Structure formats: structure tokens, C-alpha cells
Description:
This protein has about 200 residues and is mainly alpha-helical. It folds into three domains: about 1-45, no CATH class; about 45-155; about 160-195. The protein has helices at about 1-15, 30-35, 45-60, 60-65, 75-90, 95-120, 130-140, 140-145, 160-170, 180-195, and strands at about 20-25, 40-45. Strands 1-2 form a two-stranded parallel ribbon. The longest helix has 26 residues, at about 95-120. The radius of gyration is 19 Å and the shape is globular. The N and C termini lie far apart (about 40 Å). The relative contact order is 0.12.
Amino acid sequence: MFIKALKADHPMDFLKEFSGFLVTDGYEAYHKLARKRKDEIIICGCWGHLKRKYTDAVKAMGKAGAKTAAGTLSGQAIQKIRKIFHEDNELKQMEPEERQKRRNEEIKSLVDEFFAWVKKHRSEVTRKSVTGRAFTYTIEQEEYLRTFLSDGRVPMDNNAAERAIRSFCIGKKNWVMCDTIHGAQDSAIVYSLTETA
């Protein structure tokens, strides 16, 4: 119980000065933070993380299953998500107000259709299957995944942040020996300086 409280405390402490849109995966600590500070923080779900859930389901089918993935529910979900991404990418060069208007005119119906499709097919898979867990995640995160439709400044995913920390994630095996808080903090300072130089 104490460990769970600590996990939620870290984002709360780190983001104590932050207000605005926060594009995240489905980590409950962020949702808890937004509920606590509802007038200051708005959670936006990451469609990249959502797509990954369905991609994992296709990968779980192995090589033989991957060849027929397009006909599976996970494969169909991936295609629907790709279409939403494609349509939104067409609006990237627009000013936020125009992007929001066009999202509501052109993309909202695709998003509505996607969530309706997930709910329709939810009962066709077991909840513990990889696809079933992807469906559950989709339904549980619907409110947050729809947030990008409400403001043209909000991206559909947090891929820019993920790319920014990619080298850190790849290199984490190199500093696994940082086994103290002070060592980790010092490494983080050096790494921050190096990455931002």
C-alpha cells in the first residue's frame, strides 16, 4: 500500500508547478493528479500508447498470425487508429483554432465510430486475452483519448516526449549501477546537461 502511494506521489511532486494539458499513457497517478487539481490539469490520452496495445496483440499471434492480422479484431483496430492518425496529420500545419474546427468536422466521427466499434466487439474476446486487455484499456481511457478533439493545441500522442527520452531509455543498462539516490540524481544532472547542450 505504501509503495502505491509513493508511485502517485512522484508525479504529484514533479508536476506541482505545472498547469495545462498533460498527454500521458493510462497511468492512474496522472488521473488522480488531474482529479485533485481539476481546474489546472487536463489529461489527454495518448493514441500512440493505445495503438501499441493492439500491436502487442498482433505480435502475440506469432509469425503465422501476423500474416492474417488484418482480419483480426486487433488488426482492424490498428487500421482504424492509423486512419485517425492520418487524418489528424493532414491538419498539422493549421493554426490551433482551425485544427480544432476541422478535427470536429472530419475526425470526431472517426473517433466516435472507433469507440462504438470497440464496444460492439468487446464481448467477442476474453477479457484476459491481449486483445481483450486492449479493448478494456480503450474503454477505460475513452474520456482522455477524446481530449485532443477539444483543443487544437493538443497532440494525439506524446511521441515527441518519448523521442526526447529514447536515448535515456536505450542507455539505462549503462547506468544500472547507480544504486543510490544521490548517484542517480548526479547522473540525471549530467545527462540533462549533455542532452540539452
